[in-house]
Design a protein that fits this description.
Helix content: 40-55%
Strand content: 15-25%
Number of helices: 9
Order of helices and strands: HEEEHHEHEHEHHHH
Radius of gyration: 26 Å
Length: 227
């Protein structure tokens, strides 16, 4: 009898927990739907969303569809579209960026945003060019759907949306990154550091000064002139 009562309590507890989980899942789904009100977006809108280490961009096509360029390692291992079409996780994205495997794909607003907040047409106040009309932007975005050559610096998701909306493939993220790198490596301080490293290597390896001092001088000199 005691065993039967214990099993009954266990079953009731599990049932209650399952129902609570179902209610929580329904609440989460409803919150997501409320978070991304697609009535706010028009065909051709440029959507911007923060995604962990960078800002991601896409073009709204209408009917809860967003075209965006995104790296994804998965197509290297499978051709199953139902698997590839699932939301691209950060791991898939990072590995895709390293292996330079990417495509312009169409996802729902929810999958595109990956839980982040969406900004609409933030580049209109930054870019000197006037945007195309929404239909033309959507047409240009759809034309490029499929595998693409990817480069983290020279052709990423921002280059794609800037080309579609403004007719110029550029990336403010890339510009800021290159500016920061230049500030670090093309500085007077780095010039002195590179010279000291070259001299230290020469004494440590006891190499011929002609083969060490000349490259050290040339490298340090070029960094100095670029600073």
């Amino acid at each position: 009898m005691a065993l039967l009562q214990a099993l009954s309590v266990f079953f009731l507890t599990m049932t209650t927990t399952t129902k609570q989980e179902q209610v929580q899942d329904e609440v989460i789904v409803k919150e997501k739907k409320r978070k991304y009100d697609i009535s706010l977006y028009k065909r051709g809108d440029l959507l911007e969303v923060p995604r962990t280490l960078f800002t991601h961009f896409g073009i709204y096509l209408g009917n809860d569809r967003v075209a965006h360029l995104i790296p994804d390692i998965l197509p290297l291992f499978t051709s199953d579209r139902s698997t590839i079409d699932t939301m691209v996780t950060n791991l898939r994205l990072i590995l895709g960026a390293i292996t330079k495997v990417a495509s312009v794909r169409v996802d729902s607003v929810e999958d595109f945003a990956y839980g982040g907040d969406i900004l609409i047409n933030p580049m209109d106040g930054v870019c000197s060019r006037q945007p195309y009309d929404g239909e033309e932007v959507g047409r240009r975005a759809e034309k490029l759907i499929g595998p693409v050559s990817y480069s983290l610096l020279w052709y990423n998701c921002e280059h794609y949306v800037m080309y579609c909306r403004y007719g110029t493939a550029m990336s403010f993220q890339t510009f800021q990154f290159c500016k920061a790198v230049r500030k670090i490596f093309c500085s007077k301080m780095f010039s002195f550091v590179s010279a000291l490293i070259g001299v230290a290597i020469m004494f440590y390896l006891q190499t011929d000064p002609l083969y060490t001092l000349l490259p050290t001088f040339l490298i340090s000199f070029h960094i100095w002139m670029a600073s």
